[in-house]
């Protein structure tokens, strides 16, 4: 079973979704993220920080283009409208979903405002993933409580 989270830059939403999903899925489920136009500067530091608050480390993740991923995915989940429009043909063996989430990077340069928005998106991704994974019987046992 393979799940792909797809966004434009692969620096925030899709990376957070990958990190959270890896902590939630049953053994044997492969989780990846990619972008339609990956940012060469890498993962947004605030995405790393807000996941670290929950005990998750995505500091080793790198932005990558979806075409660099080998094989097919059972589920493809787009997290931004641009990726859904730019990449409507990317196939999913079982289901393709779109969870349009605001870009937390748009919060501006104020660290407290950024932290607030990144936490909000992190928590929304966490909630959606728990519900969706449970509906697909892919939620590992004992992870219903928040991190």
Shape: globular
Count of alpha and pi helical runs? 4
The CATH superfamily turns out to be Response regulator
Let me know the largest β-sheet: 4 strands, parallel
Rg of Cα set: 14 Å
DSSP summary, beta strand count: 4
- Structurally, the number of domains stands at 1
Strand-residue proportion: 5-15%
CATH class division: Alpha Beta
- Give average pLDDT, whole number: 90
- State the end-to-end CA separation: 24 Å
* Poorly predicted ranges: none
Class from helix and strand fractions: alpha/beta
Strand ordering within the main sheet: 2-1-3-4
The level of helicity is: 25-40%
CATH architecture: 3-Layer(aba) Sandwich
The CATH topology: Rossmann fold
Secondary-structure element pattern, one letter each: EHEHEHEH
Tell me what you see in this structure.
There is one protein chain. The chain has helices at residues 13-24, 45-52, 81-86, 111-135; strands spanning 2-7, 30-35, 75-78, 95-98. The chain has one domain: Rossmann fold, CATH 3.40.50. The model has no long low-confidence stretch (mean pLDDT 90). It has four helices and four strands. Helix 1 (13-24) links the parallel strand 1 and strand 2. By secondary structure, it is an alpha/beta fold. Helix 1 (13-24) packs across helix 4 (111-135) and helix 2 (45-52) packs across helix 4 (111-135). A four-stranded parallel β-sheet has the order 2-1-3-4.
């Amino acid at each position: 079973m393979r799940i792909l989270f797809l966004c434009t830059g692969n620096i925030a939403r899709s990376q957070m979704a990958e990190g959270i999903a890896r902590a939630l899925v049953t053994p044997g489920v492969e989780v990846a993220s990619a972008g339609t136009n990956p940012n060469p500067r890498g993962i947004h530091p605030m995405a790393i920080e807000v996941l670290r608050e929950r005990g998750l480390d995505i500091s080793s993740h790198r932005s990558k283009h979806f075409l660099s991923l080998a094989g097919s995915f059972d589920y493809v989940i787009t997290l931004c409208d641009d990726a859904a429009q730019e990449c409507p043909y990317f196939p999913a063996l079982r289901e393709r979903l779109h969870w349009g989430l605001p870009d937390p990077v748009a919060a501006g340069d104020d660290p407290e405002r950024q932290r607030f928005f990144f936490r909000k998106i992190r928590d929304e991704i966490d909630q959606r993933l728990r519900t969706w994974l449970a509906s697909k019987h892919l939620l590992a046992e004992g992870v219903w409580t928040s991190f």
